[in-house]
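Postdoc handover notes: sequence design on the structure in folder B. Input tokens:
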């Protein structure tokens, strides 16, 4: 993922999850008769997207299941591994969430970057696939920035158990505008916690993170799991059809 270093912003009190563009815009100081130079907002810094193949796989699977879950919501955008710019005219104030979900914004088009003043808000949910090498950033600068911006929930998942124990950690924005840690609960033989923002359980199965929909009583499936489920269904149908043909053959009179 891009490794942008987030920069500090003024504290925004309360549970603000969106910002009026006027608060973010800064009028450029230019001489009379001249035009301000356009500001360039990079889409990448050329660095690797993920710490390892496992971190990349977790990010891709998480993004895929959340995109599928929000498929029929035109007002929900699921993104990740892209630069988020909180303030217009300040391209050095940037952060790069691994996975994020924003509500109240158009699903289309896909964004190369997330510019808060254009979208009118920050993400409601952010998940960082963390590791020891990104610990200081994820626990420090990113957490502080997400809190100041008013990101409703901030989660970290450590797939290799480098430093988090348990390997899932969630925070929710309180009425005072500060994060409070969400204690995990023992349920169905594993640790989990309900996300008020997503309306889903985040569950640990061994070293794996899964999303569970309590309304439907089922897990959200990754693309591989969806493919395997379809193959299993096809095999079951073929077996049922073969059994019906065999029963019909047995019932036919001989001769």
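Designed sequence:
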């Amino acid at each position: 993922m891009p490794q942008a270093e987030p920069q500090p912003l003024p504290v925004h009190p309360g549970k603000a999850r969106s910002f009026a563009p006027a608060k973010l815009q800064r009028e450029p100081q230019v001489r009379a008769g001249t035009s301000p130079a356009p500001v360039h907002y990079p889409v990448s810094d050329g660095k690797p997207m993920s710490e390892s193949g496992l971190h990349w796989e977790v990010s891709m699977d998480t993004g895929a299941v959340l995109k599928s879950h929000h498929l029929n919501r035109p007002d929900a955008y699921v993104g990740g591994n892209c630069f988020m710019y909180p303030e217009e005219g300040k391209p050095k104030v940037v952060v790069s969430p691994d996975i994020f979900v924003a509500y109240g914004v158009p699903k289309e088009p896909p964004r190369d970057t997330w510019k808060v003043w254009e979208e009118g808000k920050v993400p409601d949910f952010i998940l960082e696939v963390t590791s020891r090498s990104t610990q200081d950033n994820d626990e420090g600068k990113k957490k502080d920035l997400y809190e100041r911006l008013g990101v409703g929930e901030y989660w970290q998942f450590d797939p290799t158990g480098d430093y988090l124990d348990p390997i899932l950690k969630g925070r929710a924005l309180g009425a005072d505008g500060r994060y409070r840690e969400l204690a995990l609960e023992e349920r169905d033989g594993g640790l989990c916690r309900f996300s008020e923002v997503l309306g889903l359980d985040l569950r640990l199965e061994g070293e794996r993170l899964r999303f569970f929909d309590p309304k439907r009583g089922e897990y959200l499936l990754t693309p591989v799991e969806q493919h395997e489920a379809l193959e299993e269904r096809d095999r079951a149908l073929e077996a049922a059809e073969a059994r019906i043909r065999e029963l019909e053959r047995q019932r036919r009179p001989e001769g």
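Context for whoever picks this up: The helical segments are 21-24, 53-69, 116-119, 135-149, 223-251. Don't rerun without checking with the PI first.
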